[in-house]
Amino acid sequence: MPSNCTSLVFRAPHVLGQTRITNNTNKLTPTIHVGTCFPWYGKKTHQKKKLFHIVSQLKCSQNYPPSSVMEDQRNLVVSSLGPDKYSKELDVAVKAVQMACSLCQKVQESLISKTNSQIHSKDDNSPVTVADWSVQATISWILSKSFGCRNVSILAEEDVESLSKPDSKGLLSAVVETVNDCLVQAPHFGLKGPEKLLGSSDVLEAIGRCNSEGGPTGSFWALDPVDGTLGFVRGDQYAVALALIENGEVVLGVLGCPNYPKKKEWLSYHHRYHRIISKLTPTTSESWDKGCVLYATKGSGKAWMQPLHQTNKLLAWPNSAIPIRVSAIDDPALATFCEPVEKSNSSHSFTAGLAHSVGLRKQPLRVYSMVKYAAIARGDAEIFMKFARTGYKEKIWDHAAGMIIIQEAGGVVTDAGGSPLDFSKGTFLEGLDRGIIACGGAKLHERIIKSVDASWKCSSL
Ligand SMILES: Nc1ncnc2c1ncn2[C@@H]1O[C@H](COP(=O)(O)OS(=O)(=O)O)[C@@H](OP(=O)(O)O)[C@H]1O
Ligand SMILES: [Mg+2]
Ligand SMILES: [Mg+2]
Ligand SMILES: [Mg+2]
């Protein structure tokens, strides 16, 4: 096995007894990505145990997170991201997003069972909740704790102004309580929590620290603490999105989708989604395996999906992860396209015309948030299109994590002119040509780009 090996396949049960996972210097192999080759897997418990033992030893001795062993019917998938450049960043980011997902689930449940008094409006009339600020504070705190305040630069959606006003005391204390509730769980996620509870000033400081202006040089995190806040307050889809941008390029992305349904068909059940799942799962959310965290690093050619980590289950971290891949469908007649739910966020009439000219036959799948990117990366849909009204400038945190995950899962993401998205110009995707097109494959992408101009001329946009 070469010293820079990136994969390992266990071939037969009889080798298991002597299996030593080594590189050619006879040291423990530095990287294991995926090994699947267990036609017999699941038949013999002692073989399973042995393999788990070998892999867990590796995990302990090497500590290359996030690594995992996952059963996939008869196969066994072993994954570890190995000592690549961003392994520490990825490890912390995945864990932080897992924690944020858990925080959001609690807040969403309480929002749905209470009145709307916990939903606030920003200057642009868009909604913001305790969850948006709490996630931003939590992730900011974790990143700063893990990498040192001085080394961490974050560009994130929420600011502290409205939270710091004298009449926002109740709101601020709700945020402080939510953040502390979440951070005490840090050890369950494999992270260190604070030694004592955070006070209001600590929380405000953590939120306010996310004031990076981004730009073309250096590295910074782009964070959308709750993307699709409208979906969130409606009990529907939303996402937690965290990306690392280095010298203007997205190098790592993590996307938490706490309500991603078990059955992809249920993605379209918006507004009724929460009612449906509560009807179908009279027990606890534990028995309901909705939700996932997706992640990828640039150039790896792989994207991964973890289930949500459940703190009440005695599962040792790291959790299991499986590789994801975009859909192979390239026939427009069979392809599904996603778009924003709100007409005010993207022109439904323009995409309807475009879809018709490309030969898309299925009804659009309208889903809140970057869950649309997740659907493409997982292969549950083939196309995502967003055409905001003229004058609206797309923000980098709404696209960075989703883009890199789709690309590494084999897809293509560009603006409507076919150019790459530019993350080097600060808060906004400056120079974006009309809209965003993300596809599972290059063939579909090319067809759409070719049709945009003709449809654009006929439209009133
Ligand atoms: N006018 C307008 N046009 C286009 N986009 C806008 C607009 N206003 C807001 N936003 C951004 O849209 C983010 C949510 O996008 P979605 O694709 O999820 O839209 S939708 O909620 O499904 O309609 C949303 O992200 P969050 O604020 O994080 O929810 C906004 O950044
Ligand atoms: Mg957003
Ligand atoms: Mg947001
Ligand atoms: Mg918002």
Automatic annotation (TrEMBL):
InterPro entries: DPNP, Inositol_monoP_metal-BS, Inositol_monoP_superfamily, Inositol_monophosphatase-like, Inositol_monophosphatase_CS. Pfam families: Inositol_P. CDD domains: PAP_phosphatase. One of its GO terms (molecular function) is 3'(2'),5'-bisphosphate nucleotidase activity. Mg(2+) binds at residues 157, 224, 227, 398. It catalyses: 3'-phosphoadenylyl sulfate + H2O = adenosine 5'-phosphosulfate + phosphate; adenosine 3',5'-bisphosphate + H2O = AMP + phosphate. Its EC number is 3.1.3.7. It comes from the Eukaryota. Transmembrane segments: none annotated. Gene3D superfamilies: 3.40.190.80, Fructose-1,6-Bisphosphatase, subunit A, domain 1. The keyword Magnesium applies. SUPFAM superfamilies: Carbohydrate phosphatase (SSF56655). GO terms for biological process: phosphatidylinositol phosphate biosynthetic process; sulfate assimilation. Keywords: Hydrolase, Magnesium, Metal-binding. It is an enzyme of class 3 (hydrolase). Its cofactor is Mg(2+). The keyword Coiled coil does not apply. Belongs to the inositol monophosphatase superfamily. This is 3'(2'),5'-bisphosphate nucleotidase. It comes from Gossypium schwendimanii (Cotton).
